[in-house]
Amino acid sequence: MRILIADDDPQMLRALRITLTARGYDVTTAADGRAALDAAIATHPDIVVIDLGMPGLTGIEVIEALRGWTQVPVLVVSGRSESWDKVEALDAGADDYVTKPFSADELLARIRALSRRTPAASSEPVVTFGDVTVDLSARVVTRAGAAVRLTPTEWRLLEVLVHNRDRLVTRETLLTEVWGPQYTTDTGYLRLYLSQLRKKLEPEPSKPRHLLTEPGMGYRFVAG
């Protein structure tokens, strides 16, 4: 599980990184609000642990920005113990709030609770369509039994579409999920990468059966 920790206290960052890494988590750290947002876009964490009093962008501002494009669980860790601070954070979109100082056991319990709330990305770990098999857990794609090499961007695009099987995924959603919220108007990226995916996965790339375009709206993955 990937965890992003954002705090301007270097000792706190170091302590949390050591504690969580020792428990098997993949940890990314950020020392200010802007770095936290950049890291969230780059790493797509499963949980964000964030302080409120950071330079640049405050924790509240980061939470509000995150909620514009992701529902990743957010755990606030803050020295602010007033009830109105907690209300403000929760209203901004935080999922839980723990006051400093706290024990490692409490933090780990809160993280475990949040991880249980996170819905599975797909109820089917292996998805097949035509002669293609997509193993979402192993991140492997095969076609007619042979491995298909996808770039990281191609994989991320396919992953989002497969997770939303039979549902329209808007261009803005795809651009945000794959490239980040600052790229929501760069539709040329989508056309290019969808074309590449179709060449690798569709039996007739010019007449796609599975990676479909919804004109003026976005794309849809259909297995049948």
> What class would the helix/strand composition place it in?
alpha/beta
**Oligomeric state, counting identical vs distinct chains:** single chain
Radius of gyration: 20 Å
Say which CATH homologous superfamily of the largest domain is assigned.
Response regulator
User: What characteristic shape results from the CA principal axes?
Assistant: elongated
Largest sheet: 5 strands, parallel
Q: How many separate domains? A: 2
What's the CATH architecture of the largest domain?
3-Layer(aba) Sandwich
Arrangement of strands in the largest sheet? 2-1-3-4-5
DSSP strand (E) fraction? 15-25%
Q: Indicate the percent of residues in helices.
A: 40-55%
| Number of strand elements | 12
CATH class of the largest domain equals Alpha Beta
Strand and helix order: EHEHEHEHEHEEEEHEHHEE
